[in-house]
């Protein structure tokens, strides 16, 4: 069964462009992972400093492989001084229909 989640990140003042560039690079890396089915990055129309990332992986094993990637670890370390709270807020989803 697919593993889906979303993550939100709020850029600190003056850090939006840097965060956007990092997310763009990450998207390319994650989309190249064999188990990635979806990786989309958005900003809120009413707040361009708030990023919303939707992710779906083929299954739990694909998600675990994603979590073990070097590009993911580097991204999470790099964003610490760029976002509120030092990282993203992640919500896991269950399919209803």
- The N- and C-terminal alpha carbons lie at a distance of 13 Å
What order do the strands of the largest sheet run in, or round the barrel if closed?
2-3-1-4
Overall radius of gyration: 13 Å
Shape label? globular
Number of helices: 3
Helix/strand/pairing category: alpha+beta
Uncertain spans: none
**Percent range for helical residues?**
25-40%
Keywords: Monooxygenase, Oxidoreductase
Pfam families: ABM
Domain ABM: 3-92
Organism: Gluconobacter vitians
Question: How does this model look, in words?
Answer:
The chain has 97 residues and is an alpha+beta fold. It is 34% helix and 34% strand. The chain has three helices and four strands. Strands 2-3-1-4 form a four-stranded antiparallel beta sheet. Strand 2 and strand 3 form a beta hairpin. The chain starts with a strand and ends with a strand. The model has no long low-confidence stretch (mean pLDDT 97).
Fold blueprint:
Layout: E1 3-10, H1 16-31, E2 36-44, E3 47-57, H2 60-67, H3 70-78, E4 89-93
Antiparallel strand pairs: 1-3, 1-4, 2-3
Task: Describe the structure concisely.
Residues 3-92 form the ABM domain. With 97 residues, the chain is of the alpha+beta class.
């Amino acid at each position: 069964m697919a593993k889906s989640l979303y993550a939100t990140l709020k850029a600190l003042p003056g850090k939006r462009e840097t965060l956007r560039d990092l997310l763009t690079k990450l998207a390319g890396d994650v989309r190249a992972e064999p188990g990635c089915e979806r990786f989309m990055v958005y900003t809120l129309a009413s707040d361009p400093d708030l990023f919303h990332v939707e992710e779906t992986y083929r299954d739990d094993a694909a998600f675990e492989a994603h979590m073990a990637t070097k590009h993911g670890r580097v991204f999470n370390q790099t964003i610490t001084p760029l976002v509120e709270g030092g990282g993203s807020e992640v919500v896991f989803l269950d399919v209803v229909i």
